[in-house]
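[audit] Reproducing an earlier prediction to check determinism. Same input, same settings, fresh worker. If the tokens differ from the archived copy the diff job will pick it up downstream; this log only records the rerun itself.
[audit] input (445 residues):
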Amino acid sequence: MKLARLMPRRISNQLVLLNSVALGFAFLFAVALVGLGKVYQGQTARDQMVIVRIVDLRETLDVIDASSRARFADAASSRTTSIKIAPTPALLESANNARSASIVLALSDLGFRDVRAAVLSRMPEDGTTDTRNAGQNREVVLVTLQLSQNDWLNFSSRAPRTWFTDGQEQFLLFIFMVTFVLVTAAVLVMVRRIVRPIGHLASAAEEIAAGKRDVQLSFDGAHEFAEANRAFDLMQAEIRQFERQQMLTMAAVGHDLRTPITSLRIRAELIEDQGLADAMIRTLDEMTAMADGLITFARSGDVEPHKETFDLNELLQELCARMDVPFEADSVAIVNGGPNSLRRVFRNLIENAQRYGGSASVVLEVSAGNAQIDVLDRGPGIAPEILDYILEPFRRGEVSRNKELGGVGLGLAIAHEILRNHQGDLSLENRLNGGLRARTTLPHV
């Protein structure tokens, strides 16, 4: 559980982290293999090769003429091995270390006389710097032995120089860094190809949640993502069809209720008991308002056929002047949509503020690419427990508002639906100093 909390939230970051961890383990594994290789091909094997080479040289030198030994030694030398026949020894005494002593003992057991050996390492066992091999950074094995009274074999073998001899660890680190950069770049390219369609799908879902119903997704890319996009488009079509059927049903119910309500009203007017007749007529009027509200709500989902880009300031200023409401704006807000539908939204919000809050004021601000319109009142507000669902159809704020003034609970639902069709939103919140704030947001062009 704790490891899950440490994991990045984005899938791209998770894949990069996984790639880094995998390469890190691969690097450690490579270092371990190199270490095992060093042990397997270690110092003992190298010393044994020197001993075998000296034995072979001695056998050859014994069968050739003494005058030809020097030429043979030069011919047998190489870039890493130096063979010299000289009248004096190159080493006056053996080095005081275990490897040198081991070489001397092995050659002495094979019958060689007056053997001297020295191993010059990059870092001797005592940790001091070996100045005799300074700057070479490679191990050298020196062996001197007497061939005859006047001839000495001076043999030196230097470890072969490879392109990582001067530092295997640094070489491996370089390889690791190059591999890490190349593999990470490849992973990032692949991750982008994977994540981009997912991001488009998430953006499309957010647009649909905001009320947009004509979101189009591309079917390019990997087969799995194309299939997911097709399924998403099919779901979107099914949702549109369901909403259309829902709205048609509501409109049909509202329309069909009008005939029996009208018939009942005519009969109620014929009742001689005036008190009873008036009560029945009031009830029928409420039913008529509900039926009309159903039809209006069903039509609110229809997109206004005439959309245009217009100055929202002018629309609000004209509406507020007509309804005698103060209006403030800090900048010009240009929006795209149906002026008539939006005028209806703001008229409803202002009427609610006047009816339930006693007064209304409108404030327009533009920020973060959105036009924000606040309709404010000084009334009792709405009880917090019903704020979460007050925008649903047939919901009213009876707890804190005057029941005698209330409608059928469709005004805010209609306004909310219209704003969603404009990619906008509506929210209600109680003000700290009393009253209600109805906040509307619309995309600013």
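[audit] rerun output stored. Observation attached for the diff report: The first helix runs from residue 2 to 6.
[audit] end
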